């Protein structure tokens, strides 16, 4: 993509009408646009980042047998009444249709996925199975002051698994946990993301959250440094020691909940009457698990933990482009490099604008792509270009003929 063609502009300073750091930087860099409290537009660069996060999540959830579907965001009241959540789900956005019926904007999808899968699954032979979606969710959050960390409209990956018994649920739950850590590893969050014990439901003692340590977080977790797990503040009274080793010297940290997994048991299959026939032909309730993760919140989290005064610093897997190619009044030579990079399938944003070096280098830092390549008369005279990593101060000179090899070898 050529920067001269991009319709969005960067700002010189953080926008004043935004209080959260992640949204301020993303708005300054032209990645998102604010529409209202907790309501944002993803602009071209921001959408590329969000899509990359979703791609990583898709690959890892597909790898554990999740089948992708897309459920409606508009959901009739009757489904929520079956589970009692029309009244009990505080953050539900409720609205009236022209048919005078009531609807909710999907805040989560147990009420929709359960009857959907029920229409297709009848016997033990059809189980286990797991379906997921990546979709926009709506919640009437009271406070939406944390930018992408707490949207009123936000993205969620929600996976639901269906089993004949507790044992197969437990096994899948372990598999999902591992997949979650693979995702956080690829997104550059592994070292600061802790499996966190939180209160469970009727079906299990604990549920598990994945909490990323960050001062902008709204949660407090208590970390066991020996086991690399944590306990959520909300259960610390009943569980004041590490649930794995009994260590009582836990370290309190602010953290962001970037995912959570939950053994639902029969909480939803029972009200919907979702039973299966076992091997002896007896009807039994299906046992369920649910696994949530927030791509847009993860995007905000990455910004909170990975930026400097110059702007964004994206990990490679999520960066909008791998290379930020800067022409310092050398567009003829740089056009050729741009073509070569594209032919080699290296994702590149090309600053071909008629601006001075200072402004272009500031833009490159602000947008935060992992590699900056500068083409100037000085280095071209020796047949080379400058490469700098966003995370480093060092500049390398690379010969024109070696440029593609820099990434592909
Ligand atoms: P929180 O306690 O932070 O409100 P939650 O327990 O309500 O989160 P879930 O209902 O389990 O979260 O949603 C699954 C995932 O969706 C969360 O782990 C989080 O990553 C994301 N998520 C939840 N609410 C929001 C929101 N308002 N904005 C952005 N992401 C969200
Ligand atoms: Mg919530």
Automatic annotation (TrEMBL):
Pfam families: HGTP_anticodon, tRNA-synt_2b. Keywords: Aminoacyl-tRNA synthetase, ATP-binding, Ligase, Nucleotide-binding, Protein biosynthesis. Its EC number is 6.1.1.15. PROSITE patterns: AA_TRNA_LIGASE_II. It catalyses: tRNA(Pro) + L-proline + ATP = L-prolyl-tRNA(Pro) + AMP + diphosphate. One of its GO terms (cellular component) is cytosol. One of its GO terms (molecular function) is ATP binding. Coiled coil: none annotated. Residues 38-315 form the Aminoacyl-transfer RNA synthetases class-II family profile domain. PANTHER family: MITOCHONDRIAL RIBOSOME PROTEIN L39/PROLYL-TRNA LIGASE FAMILY MEMBER, PROLINE--TRNA LIGASE. This is Proline--tRNA ligase. It comes from Candidatus Falkowbacteria bacterium CG10_big_fil_rev_8_21_14_0_10_37_14.
